[in-house]
Amino acid sequence: MAGRPRDRWTARVPLAALAAALLATGAQAQDARDPRIGLRAGWGDAGEAIRNMQLVSHTDRPAGFFNPGNMADFGLANTDMAFAGNRLFIGSYNGFQVYDISDPARPRLRGSLVCPGGQGDVSVHGNLLFVSVEETRGRLDCGVQGVQDTVSTERFRGVRIFDISNLDRPRQVAAVQTCRGSHTHTLVPDPRDASHVYVYVQGTGAVRSPRELPGCSGRPPSEDPNTSYFRIEVIHVPLARPQEARIVNMPRIFADSAGNVAGLWPGGRHGEGTQQTSQTNQCHDITVYPQIGLAAGACAGNGILLDIRDPANPVRIDEVVDPNFAYWHSATFNNQGTRVIYTDEWGGGSAPRCRATDRPEWGANAIFTLANRELRHEGYYKLPAAQTEQENCVAHNGSLVPVPGRDIMVQAWYQGGVSVFDFTDPDKPVEIAFFDRGPMSATQPVLGGFWSAYWYNGHIYASEIGRGLDVFHLTPSEHLSQNEIDAARLVRMDHFNPQTQTRLEWPASFVVARAYLDQLARNRALPGTRTARIERELRQAERLTGARRRAALTQLAAQLESDAQGARDAEKVRALASVVRDLAAGRR
User: Cα 484–486–487 angle (5° rounding)?
Assistant: First the structure.
């Protein structure tokens, strides 16, 4: 267990200097020509702005998942997503929906289940669907009548497990109760044993009565060392017997070396001009990357790094604080596992936090490098287009876009829309594409916007809280070539739970080689005459077959390895050479 957090601040300037700079500069820089500014308000007829992407389809919420008398009824809101094959699962405060996305231009509702309880985050593994339940209205029997008693044996708060082998009749096979419910959860495979999985449970609600669930305690650790705060739960799920799922660990991942379970950020401000940061007594989200044995936890007042090589027993190995963060919300690794993006949900997702007067470091992403299992702050990214007082907007859920050689992420910003940005240079992230609609209302705040935006098998899928499901694809621009888009489309996943990252891999392909070459040309890493010649040689080799192709590609790979020695971006030239060698060897 790591010691008490070092009183280290994530940025690389003195705190007083930063505070003065923030007070001096105030609002974030805005481009008045940005088409997202001034969009017409409306529900189904709001104005739209889009750049470097195309809206492929829009699907309204189905019956049972909206209130015709109050379209802003948050008890029916769409939430997070998961994917398996050609199926898309959308969670909701009122249950879940399943879409067939074989044709992304025409998603087809395949099934749904009304089962209230919020917030309905979902994960999928084989024929099992996992659903988070936190609200006190949740019932064991999925009833819509709620629970009126303050203590009830009918209440359910925790993680539901459904057998979805028959989508026409999803069947609840387990319901694991937890003391604070499950705001979110994370599916964690065991690399040593595929017969089971673990589920990390992040509860952020009030602690229930011990009369309802024995062992629960809402008292502070100074009064009760067994408090239900300052921990997560770990559920073990035998895949052949999911009905036997149970909690096997409640690790105190915020403890210090002296055993104080409240060992991280105590809550409060960091000094003049800084943010009011929540106490670290819970995690909002944990993203695991089993192939590197690490997890990144966004835990209210801290970002933490966990060793998960033993997935049943996660151990904290590093932690960071940030005086610009109000509430550490979610995390995403880059593909190499050398960077982590943490998001700040300043305002809880229900407040307008992307106004022209809001500081660009508040309600934003913080980008960290990861080396020797330690985190180091590098930069921030925030949606660059100002939103109105009527639009709830802050950093929310997203995923990587698998362009080889670059770190690119697509992300939801509630009513700020969808933003695609490049953080290959963590000090200077840049937006490369976006989509936005006008506010739900021109006169009053109405909760809505995009909850999640994820790349899956060639398209971007975005769950809209009030309006439904949107599907996009990227289009070429000065920031992103057609070759890079085509290379990203080569990455195919048979399933995708965004909080369970897996290594993205590209087949040996001429389009992958050209994607790297486009990057070298864009960044002027090689002379223009040289990149043009490499393109000609690739084109000529592609027309050849057999031994002649192997010889041409082997020769080109050797030349590229020589080019790397004097190139501005030697690593990328070597990556191109590696793809060319794989092509010569006939690898796929």
Answer: 65
pLDDT score of 5 more than 70: no
- Find the range with the poorest average confidence among 1-5, 424-428, 465-469: 1-5
Each residue's pLDDT tens digit, 386-407: 999 999 999 999 999 999 999 9
- Which residue carries 């495979």 as its tokens? 189
Q: How confident is the model at residue 344 (pLDDT cuts 50, 70, 90)?
A: very high
Amino acid letter, 114: V
Contacts 24+ apart (CB under 8 A), 579-583: 579/506, 579/508, 579/509, 579/512, 579/513, 579/516, 580/513, 580/538, 580/553, 580/556, 581/553, 581/554, 581/557, 582/508, 583/508, 583/509, 583/510, 583/513, 583/541, 583/553
- pLDDT single digits (tens) 492-505: 999 999 999 999 99
Boundaries of domain holding 162: 61-250
Q: How many domains does the chain have?
A: 2
User: Within a domain: residue 121?
Assistant: yes
| Rounded-to-integer distance, Cα 342 and Cα 131, Å | 23
Residue 546 placed within a domain = yes
β-pair partners for 81: 90
